[in-house]
Specification:
By secondary structure, the protein is mostly helical. The chain is built from two helices and no strands.
Length: 92
Protein backbone atom coordinates (compact mmCIF):
# COMPACT_ATOMS: atom_id res chain seq x y z
CA UNK A 1 0.00 0.00 0.00
CA UNK A 2 2.84 2.37 0.80
CA UNK A 3 4.29 1.88 -2.63
CA UNK A 4 1.04 2.97 -4.21
CA UNK A 5 1.13 6.19 -2.15
CA UNK A 6 4.75 6.98 -3.14
CA UNK A 7 4.18 6.34 -6.83
CA UNK A 8 2.25 9.60 -7.53
CA UNK A 9 4.89 11.59 -5.64
CA UNK A 10 7.68 10.12 -7.73
CA UNK A 11 5.77 10.73 -10.94
CA UNK A 12 5.13 14.40 -10.12
CA UNK A 13 8.79 14.98 -9.21
CA UNK A 14 9.71 14.50 -12.87
CA UNK A 15 6.98 16.91 -13.94
CA UNK A 16 8.20 19.57 -11.52
CA UNK A 17 11.78 19.38 -12.78
CA UNK A 18 10.57 19.54 -16.39
CA UNK A 19 8.38 22.53 -15.62
CA UNK A 20 11.29 24.26 -13.89
CA UNK A 21 13.51 23.64 -16.92
CA UNK A 22 10.87 25.12 -19.23
CA UNK A 23 10.51 28.21 -17.06
CA UNK A 24 14.31 28.76 -16.85
CA UNK A 25 15.00 28.23 -20.56
CA UNK A 26 14.19 31.77 -21.83
CA UNK A 27 16.38 33.33 -19.14
CA UNK A 28 19.27 31.02 -19.94
CA UNK A 29 18.99 31.81 -23.65
CA UNK A 30 18.92 35.55 -22.95
CA UNK A 31 21.96 35.26 -20.69
CA UNK A 32 23.93 33.40 -23.35
CA UNK A 33 22.97 35.99 -25.96
CA UNK A 34 24.27 38.79 -23.74
CA UNK A 35 27.51 36.87 -23.13
CA UNK A 36 28.01 36.37 -26.85
CA UNK A 37 27.29 40.01 -27.67
CA UNK A 38 29.73 41.49 -25.15
CA UNK A 39 33.50 41.20 -24.85
CA UNK A 40 34.91 40.40 -21.46
CA UNK A 41 38.01 42.15 -20.15
CA UNK A 42 40.08 38.98 -20.51
CA UNK A 43 38.99 38.63 -24.15
CA UNK A 44 39.87 42.27 -24.81
CA UNK A 45 43.29 41.80 -23.20
CA UNK A 46 43.91 38.65 -25.23
CA UNK A 47 42.92 40.38 -28.47
CA UNK A 48 45.11 43.40 -27.71
CA UNK A 49 48.07 41.15 -26.92
CA UNK A 50 47.61 39.28 -30.18
CA UNK A 51 47.42 42.55 -32.11
CA UNK A 52 50.62 43.82 -30.49
CA UNK A 53 52.52 40.55 -31.10
CA UNK A 54 51.56 40.69 -34.76
CA UNK A 55 52.66 44.33 -34.97
CA UNK A 56 55.99 43.51 -33.33
CA UNK A 57 56.52 40.61 -35.75
CA UNK A 58 55.83 42.94 -38.66
CA UNK A 59 58.27 45.54 -37.32
CA UNK A 60 60.95 42.92 -36.76
CA UNK A 61 60.57 41.59 -40.30
CA UNK A 62 60.77 45.09 -41.79
CA UNK A 63 63.82 45.96 -39.69
CA UNK A 64 65.59 42.73 -40.75
CA UNK A 65 64.80 43.46 -44.41
CA UNK A 66 66.10 47.03 -43.99
CA UNK A 67 69.28 45.78 -42.31
CA UNK A 68 69.90 43.22 -45.09
CA UNK A 69 69.37 45.85 -47.76
CA UNK A 70 71.59 48.44 -46.10
CA UNK A 71 74.30 46.19 -44.66
CA UNK A 72 77.66 47.39 -45.93
CA UNK A 73 76.13 50.18 -48.01
CA UNK A 74 75.02 53.03 -45.72
CA UNK A 75 75.06 55.57 -48.58
CA UNK A 76 72.25 53.76 -50.33
CA UNK A 77 68.96 55.68 -50.41
CA UNK A 78 66.86 55.11 -47.31
CA UNK A 79 69.71 53.49 -45.38
CA UNK A 80 70.72 56.44 -43.23
CA UNK A 81 67.95 55.82 -40.69
CA UNK A 82 65.12 53.29 -40.32
CA UNK A 83 61.78 54.98 -41.02
CA UNK A 84 59.54 51.99 -41.40
CA UNK A 85 56.71 50.57 -39.37
CA UNK A 86 57.06 50.90 -35.57
CA UNK A 87 54.87 48.58 -33.47
CA UNK A 88 54.64 51.10 -30.62
CA UNK A 89 52.69 53.45 -32.92
CA UNK A 90 49.87 50.89 -33.13
CA UNK A 91 49.16 51.18 -29.39
CA UNK A 92 48.25 54.85 -29.65
Amino acid sequence: MRILLLLPLLATAGCVSTAAAIVKAPFQVAGKAVDMATTSQSEADRNYGKKMRQAEEREGKERRDWARRCDGNPEREGCDQYRGFVAADVAR
